[in-house]
Design a protein that fits this description.
The protein is α+β, with helices and mostly antiparallel strands. It contains 4 helices and 8 strands; from the N terminus they run αβαβββαββββα.
Length: 183
């Protein structure tokens, strides 16, 4: 327990020091337990990875009337994962989602990061924030059918609940029991 408190205090001090010095693109802090990831998710599915699993799209933030300048207005890179739903473990989205449906999933906090990117480069705002993460037992690229913990994105697609909110399907029984207990 003392070790966790010390790590938290050191991380906060580093965060405050960085925030004082200038723009911060985000500070990952706050390891979330699996039960908390489940509590904060409104869609939990087993899914197959799309081909390709990951795509990137550049979003130009150059204001209208201004000349494109990548140093002054750097392009924001929007990432999207494609998954095909194999099994639904929890659906609190108020939408019918069927097996076999392809869903688009954004990295956790991507919408907020885009907003902060615009605020920094267009308005000069120097903001910092904290991001929660989960430590899965697997690497996403190594799991054939991972369990995904998701939330609804503002555009109707989905976003990972927190950074790395996925888990091995080998933990299915444990996760189903936790869903019944937590939800």
């Amino acid at each position: 327990m003392k070790k966790k408190v010390c790590i938290t205090i050191i991380t906060l001090l580093v965060f405050l020091l960085i925030a004082k010095e200038g723009h911060v693109t985000g500070v990952s802090m706050g390891k979330m337990a699996l039960r908390d990831v489940i509590k904060n998710s409104n869609l939990i599915v087993i899914a197959k990875k799309g081909k390709p699993i990951f795509t990137e799209e550049g979003i130009d933030i150059t204001p209208s009337g201004e000349r494109k300048d990548d140093k002054k207005y750097p392009t924001f890179i929007k990432a999207t994962y494609d998954f095909q739903v194999v099994k639904i473990l929890l659906n609190d989205t108020n939408e019918s989602i069927e097996q076999g449906k392809t869903i688009k999933v954004y990295p956790a906090y991507q919408e907020f990061r885009f907003e902060m990117h615009q605020r920094y480069y267009l308005k000069g705002d120097r903001k910092s924030w904290l991001e929660d993460y989960y430590s899965p037992s697997i690497k996403l690229e190594n799991e054939k059918e991972p369990i995904l913990f998701l939330k609804r994105a503002s555009d109707g697609n989905f976003t990972f609940t927190v950074i790395d909110s996925f888990e091995s399907s080998a933990l299915l029984k444990r996760i189903v029991a936790m869903i019944k207990k937590e939800k």
